[in-house]
Amino acid sequence: MVTIDTTLDWREIARVAAGAALALSPSAWERVGAARGIVEAILDRGIRAYGINTGVGALSDTVVDRESQRRFARNLLMSHACGVGAPLPAEEVRAVIAVQVNNFAHGRSGVRPVTVDAMLGLLAHGVVPEVPGRGSVGYLTHMAHIGLVLIGEGFARIGDERMTGAEALARIGQAPLVLEAKEGLSLVNGSPCATGLAALALARAERVLGWADAIAALSLEALGGQMAAFDEDVLAARASPGLVEVGQNLRARLAGSDLIARALGVRTQDALSLRAIPHVHGAARDVLAVTAAVVDRELAAVTDNPMVSGTAEAPRVHSEAHAVAPALGQALDSLGVAVAQVASMAERRLDRLINPLVNSGAFGLPPFLALDPGSNSGFMIAQYTALGLVSENRRLAAPASLDGGVTSGLQEDFLAHATAASTKCLGIADNAAMILGIEYLAAGDAHDALAGTASRAAGTETVHAHLRAAIARYGDDRPLSGLMARAHGLIVASAAPDAGPQEERAP
What we know:
About 55% of the residues lie in helices and about 5% in strands. The protein folds into two domains: about 1-190, Fumarase C, Chain B, domain 1 (Orthogonal Bundle); about 200-305 and about 320-495, Fumarase C, Chain A, domain 2 (Up-down Bundle), CATH 1.20.200.10. The strands form four sheets. It has a three-stranded antiparallel beta sheet. A two-stranded parallel sheet has the order 1-2. The protein is elongated and about 85 Å long. Helix 4 packs across helix 9, helix 9 (about 190-220) packs across helix 11 and helix 15 (about 325-355) runs antiparallel to helix 16 (about 380-395). It is mostly helical. It is built from 19 helices and nine strands. The chain has helices spanning about 10-15, 25-45, 70-80, 90-105, 115-125, 140-150, 165-170, 185-190, 190-220, 230-235, 240-255, 260, 270-275, 275-300, 325-355, 380-395, 420-450, 460-470, 480-495; strands at about 1-5, 20-25, 85, 125-130, 130-135, 155-160, 160-165, 305-310, 315-320. InterPro entries: Aromatic_Lyase (IPR001106), Fumarase/histidase_N (IPR024083), L-Aspartase-like (IPR008948). It comes from Aureimonas glaciei. GO terms for molecular function: ammonia-lyase activity. This is Histidine ammonia-lyase.
């Protein structure tokens, strides 16, 4: 169970996305109720307030009378539910709902407690609204499709079964909501989609980076890498938290390797795809840490417009731009670039494992790791696939936050595209997992080709054994695509195996 007291962090959002239950603490429920009281007071006193008793966007100067506000709230969902394309996966929809509930729990939006409870009901009973994944320039459309199900419209899934929103609510014993003033706007507003997807992008990127260190160590060992470049005092001369951590990981993973000892001094220095592992992987870890801080700040922030404050006796309403999330878009763009660079380096290591022009160094690996080079092609074309994904990542890594655009009759004449940045980052992380999976297969086969040469380190033995427990050595005896998909599955399913006892770390 994940409980909102003050605010959630990105890891808690990822837990709810994966299926954990979500609840509000008594103090959070009290904030939600107090904020609704402020909205009611604004309505009773006739205080002009954007989206409460006026239209939205370019229609913000048009007054909506009290009798029309229920219709206005419902119509907002209808007009804003204009996403296109394939639906988001269930975990992504759950993440978006969790972030919006977290936003309402700050007590500055003014939706009714019954509306928040209805959203919690979707999470609790496994109802996944059908949310088209494309068409958003920042927010609005994704949450509108979720809101449709709350009022008994749209479509949803429970398990593998697709049904109407009304059928889904009936299945879980929940009545369709009749929205009141401001609730339509609050349901579509803010940055819940970008932030929810960002939390998942962080979780996926963190897992990819953990595997990147482990797989790089396996490749480095098979290629007879020179460990002097990773000495603690050497890396301390260009220290960053991430670089130091990766250096520690590599030393721990390769401690006691007879293969590394056998290759000592074979080369003066390794190619940069080996020698610069701490620098590239470490830089990505540093970007991950910065991005995580930005996402947590977003979760702690009010992202609804307008927001309310004061009391029912002295209500205040504030029109602002908190729904715009430029920091989030910039951070996710940066994380996408960092993960793409890690994957690009992985493809270069893959090439060194299979390329007969460079892989005959320390131990003499067979061309393309083929069991019978000539009649077998081994991993020759798998490298093509990895390179294609590297190129796709390069295209995806173009910054979404600079896309611009003008909407709503010049009223919204700046767009930060944070949702697009989060979506792209998820795609880059998934491609990176596949590229690393292909390197994993090749590194495992390289070690099998070296059987009897010298022993692996205990820290890489766990990685090799994890692979072989699921996938046998390749011999051109079955389509590689299936093996690559299974290797990708190993990476996305769990963290990399432990390296065993860690080296002593400086305080």
